[in-house]
């Protein structure tokens, strides 16, 4: 199974700040990577697919990048509504998820 | 708009089974597979498997073979997951999710249900 190592596990940031969350795959996943946002008490919502494609309706302050085994999610100009947990998912070889990053406001 | 409406919370005894549902609306049900995902605090998100809503064909994560059984009722646009021989380790929130299947047969999930909490306790 492909292991997804996500970092950091938790993050505290200020409004307006830029935040970066990373995922490292145990082998090349050829950009077959998605990012999801899960607000407290809610189900996950798709943010990014194919490593860097923005899902419908997702604000442009969210962006994804990376290749090979290293991927990142960047949130520009952090808003209060971005407080959530974020998960990566590789779908190159079956499906596995990262352990998540909990983002809080400082 | 696309919606996946799941059934309510379940409290079950060890050794029993539960069957949870996922009713789809807002799109052509048979045009998209449905997947099921388990979420726990300890193990995070775990992929269970998918069902081809048109043919009823299924694919399971090896870990959940024998534990989960996926079925579908096209007439009501509803997918089901039965969990059998329940143990406390099966206590979790279970989500259904609509599958985006790419030409290369890889897939991710664009809409998720609200989740069903299953608690296994004597």
- What oligomeric arrangement do these chains adopt? heterodimer
Residue ranges of chain A: pLDDT <50 for 5 or more in a row? none
Distance from N terminus to C terminus of chain B (CA atoms, Å) equals 40 Å
Largest sheet of chain A: 7 strands, mixed
Total helical segments of chain A: 0
Q: Tell me the span between the first and last alpha carbons of chain A.
A: 36 Å
Number of strands of chain A: 11
Shape of chain A: globular
| Overall mean confidence score, pLDDT of chain A | 97
The shape of chain B is: globular
Polypeptide structure, described:
The complex is a heterodimer of chains A (106) and B (122). With 106 residues, chain A is mainly β. Chain A is built from no helices and 11 strands. In chain B, strands 2, 4, 5, 6, 9, 10 and 11 form a 7-stranded mixed beta sheet that branches. A 4-stranded antiparallel beta sheet of chain B has the order 1-3-8-7, with no helix packed on it. Chain B has strands at residues 3-6, 10-12, 18-25, 34-40, 44-51, 58-60, 68-73, 78-83, 92-101, 107-112, 116-120. In chain B, β4 and β5 (44-51) form a beta hairpin. Chain A binds chain B through residues 32, 34, 36, 42-46, 49, 55, 87, 89, 91-92, 94-100, and chain B through 44-47, 61, 95, 100, 106-115.
